[in-house]
Structure formats: C-alpha cells, structure tokens
Design brief:
A hairpin with an 8-residue loop joins strand 6 and strand 7 (about 405-410). With about 425 residues, the chain is an alpha+beta fold. The protein folds into 3 domains: about 10-130, no CATH class; about 195-260; about 265-415, 2-Layer Sandwich (Heat Shock Protein 90). The chain has a 5-stranded mixed β-sheet with strand order 2-4-5-7-6, with helices on one face. Strands 1-3 form a two-stranded antiparallel sheet. The protein contains 11 helices and 7 strands. The chain starts with 8 loop residues before the first helix and ends in a 10-residue tail after the last strand. The structure holds adenosine-5'-diphosphate (ADP) and magnesium ion. Magnesium ion (MG) binds near residues 317, 320, 321 and 378.
C-alpha cells in the first residue's frame, strides 16, 4: 500500500508557499484557521515519516483520517454563514488525493465517499437555518462529483505507477538471478578449465613415465632370469620389482586410455550380442561365479551406431563394477535392453549394496573409488565414451538398494560421428 516517497525538498517548500498563500487570505485574524493550516502543512511534510513509524497498513488510514479531520475543522473556522458555504471546501481534496495515492480504486472510492459524507454532514446544522434549494443542491452535488473525479484521476496514475514499479522489480529480480547463475557458470567453467589443464599435465606425465617403466620392467625380467639359480633373495626382490612395475604400468595405460583423444570408429552394431560377449569375457574370468543372471531383452532391438571396441569397454566396466559390488557371496545380475525414443537403453542392475546418496554425484569423477585396490577410472571412462557417442549414462536406482546403471546409445540412423 504505502510506498516510500522520495519527494525533493522543494516540493515541500512549494506546498508550504501555497498554504502560506491561504493563510494570507481572509479570514486573516482567525487564529484557529492559521493553526489548522500550520498543522496541515507540518503533517504533509512529516507524512512519509509518520507512515514509516505507524506501519504500512495503519499509517495511510491514519494519515487520511487526520487530514480529513483537519479539513473538516478548517471549514468550521472559515465561513461567514455556515461551514457548508465556506470557500475553503476544496481543502477536502487533500484527504481525497492522499487516499488516492495510498489505496486501491475501491478503497479510494470508499474514502472519497467518507470525505463527501463529512462535507455533507455540515448540511444538517445549515438546514435548520436555511432551505436547500435546487441551485444549492446542484452546487453541492457538483463539488462532490469533483471529489470523485479528482480521486479517480490521481488513483489511476498511481496504479499505473505501482504496476510499472512492480514490473521493474520483477525484472531486476530476474536479472539478479541470471547474474547469479552466470557467475556460478563462470566459476564452474574456470574449475573445469583448471581440471582440464591438470588432466593434460598428468596425461603428459603418464606418457613420459610409461617409457622408463618399460625399460625397468624389461630389466627386471632379465634380472629375474639371470638370478634365477644363484641368489633366491635377489630373485624374490626382482620379482617384486617386476610385479609392481607391471601394476604401475597397467595403471598408467588405463589412465592414458582415459585421457587420450581417439577417433570413433562408428558402425551399426547389435547391442545384445555385444553385451553377451562382454558377459562371456567376465564369466571366463570367473567374475560371475556366484552370480545368477537374468536377461530381459526386447524382441527386436534396433542396431546402434557405435564404436564396438569402446562400447565393449563400457559394458565390461559396468559388469565388473556390478560383480565387484556383489562380492564373494555373489547375487543377482539383471540385464535389460529395450528401445527408447531414438536410442536403445541397456540396464545393468546388481543386488549389491548400491551407491549411497552422497556419492551419486562423484562416482563418475576420475579417480573416485571406494575400493582398496580400485583406480576410480572405470565410470569416468564409461561416461566419456558414452558422451562421445551422444548417449547418456545414469545411475537410475534409488539409494538403499542394488545399483542399476542405464546406458542409452543412439540407434543406427540417428547416430553421428564424433570425436572422443
Ligand atoms: N554397481 C555398483 N554398486 C555399488 N557401487 C558402485 C557400483 N559401480 C560403481 N560403484 C562405486 O563407484 C566407484 C567408482 O567406480 P569406478 O569408476 O568403476 O572405479 P573403481 O571400480 O576402480 O572403484 C566405486 O569405487 C564404487 O564405490
Ligand atoms: Mg570399476
């Protein structure tokens, strides 16, 4: 309702000058009149402060009531014959316009009616002395109509103004929101840039480490053979060197697989066959020894446009994770394949412990692992390969039950070549 009025001080000065003009006009020696004008002037100047103190709801009501009272009393002290005939009747425009400024149209109409009623109330004592002829009645009606006219004109402009203010407010809030998300996006971009630079650096480092590793590995192997008969201790130590170097070398190779850009060799492939071949590899390696496998493949699955070798990496990683999650005691592995829009979706669900809520965001990050001997590159590689195919990979199971990963890949005619 009430709004802040940042009126320039010269407006207050003008208002006082006009009031002073009224004070100089007859009746001049009427003390009450001068005091009332002074009160009206002071109240007008202090009005916004008054509303701030009394509150947004009560303030305007009190302000209009005070002005209305001052106006009514002023009429009482500025007449020759009866208050209703006072030339100061336009002072009622003061409460009327104040109401028009602070209230909505309906409330403005009510306040104008109250003001008109206050003005007309002077009719009651006047009627005891005089008769109300048609001329007098039409004059009264004219004044009242002017009250309404002025009130509605002012109110219309104020409503327009308020509407604009609200629009600009919403606009500026939206702008602030956009700014905030922009800053966030910029921060994220900077973070991604730093990560990318770090990735490049470590890829370079891994590449450089691989060559000396090869030499160490070869030397350890030769040493192992040479020392085979002579010194069992030295043989054992060289054996350690050999196996550990092998481990580091495998790690570096995996990392380079992840970091290296490579061209996709896209071909139309049959997803169920591909998944089965990955499952067979896992079974041959003994990963599914205690796992019961159920398949739910849609009858006619369209071919997908993928790089076979890379996609096999995707499924091998997901199957390995599923089997590792179920552990020694095994469990149930559910495989589903079905078409979805322009894609084919593969779901790999295990009956393991699942992924806790707080880790869902991180599991696709490189080097995130919860396993003692894990590297944390499996899902990072999966997501990189799937992204390069224009597909999606998601953990779709809710926390608290076995994990279910869904990989969606584009069907043959919709797929495009891409850079990995
Ligand atoms: N099927 C799954 N069930 C439960 N947790 C999983 C599963 N797959 C992945 N995770 C979690 O995501 C992490 C990252 O997986 P991954 O990137 O393959 O690396 P790694 O297997 O070397 O740990 C795992 O350490 C594990 O905590
Ligand atoms: Mg893994």
């Amino acid at each position: 309702m009430a709004e802040e009025h940042a009126a320039p001080p010269w407006l207050d000065a003008l208002w006082l000058i006009f009031l002073f003009g009224l004070a100089l006009l007859p009746p001049i020696r009427e003390l009450h009149k001068q005091v009332l004008l002074l009160l009206l002037g002071v109240f007008q100047i202090l009005e916004s402060r008054f509303i701030r103190v009394t509150g947004e709801k009560r303030g305007p009501v009190l302000a209009v009531l005070i002005k209305l009272t001052l106006a009514a009393v002023l009429l009482n002290h500025t007449h020759d014959v009866a208050p209703i005939t006072s030339s100061y009747w336009p002072v009622f425009f003061v409460p009327v316009t104040t109401a028009a400024i602070y209230f909505r149209p309906l409330a403005t109409l009510l306040w104008t009616t109250l003001t008109s009623a206050a003005y007309c109330s002077y009719l009651i004592p006047a009627l005891q002395q005089f008769d109300l002829d048609w001329k007098g009645a039409s004059e009264l009606l004219l004044r009242i109509l002017f009250f309404y006219l002025v009130a509605m004109t002012v109110n219309r402009f104020v409503m327009d103004y308020r509407f604009q203010v609200q629009r600009y407010q919403t606009l500026s809030e939206n702008l602030a929101d956009t700014n905030r998300s922009l800053r966030l996006a910029q921060a994220e971009a900077r973070h991604a840039e730093r990560l990318a630079a770090l990735g490049q650096l470590s890829a370079g480092l891994a590449h450089e480490i691989r060559n000396p590793l090869g030499v160490i590995k070869g030397s350890a192997e030769i040493l192992n053979q040479k020392l085979a008969a002579s010194d069992p201790m030295a043989q054992e130590l060289s054996g350690y060197i050999y196996t550990e170097v092998n481990r580091v070398s495998a790690l570096v190779s995996r990392f380079l697989d992840f970091a290296r850009p490579s061209q996709l060799n896209l071909r139309a492939e049959d997803l169920p066959a591909m998944l089965e071949s990955c499952l067979k590899t896992a079974t041959d390696q003994g990963a599914t020894a205690h796992v019961s496998i159920t398949r739910d493949y849609a009858p006619s699955v369209p071919r997908v446009m993928v790089d076979r070798e890379l996609c096999e990496q995707v499924f091998t990683n997901l199957l390995a994770n599923a089997c590792e999650a179920m552990g020694e005691q095994g469990g149930e592995l559910k495989l589903r394949i079905r078409p979805a829009d322009a894609q084919v979706a593969v779901e790999i669900e295990d009956s393991g412990p699942g992924v806790p809520e707080q880790m869902r965001e991180q599991i696709f990050n490189p080097f995130f692992t919860t396993k003692k001997t894990g590297v944390g590159l499996g899902l990072a590689i999966v997501s990189k390969i799937v992204d390069a195919h224009g597909g999606t990979v998601k953990l779709v199971s809710p926390p608290g039950r076995g994990a279910c990963f869904r990989v969606a890949l584009p069907i043959a005619q919709a797929a495009k070549g891409a850079q990995l």
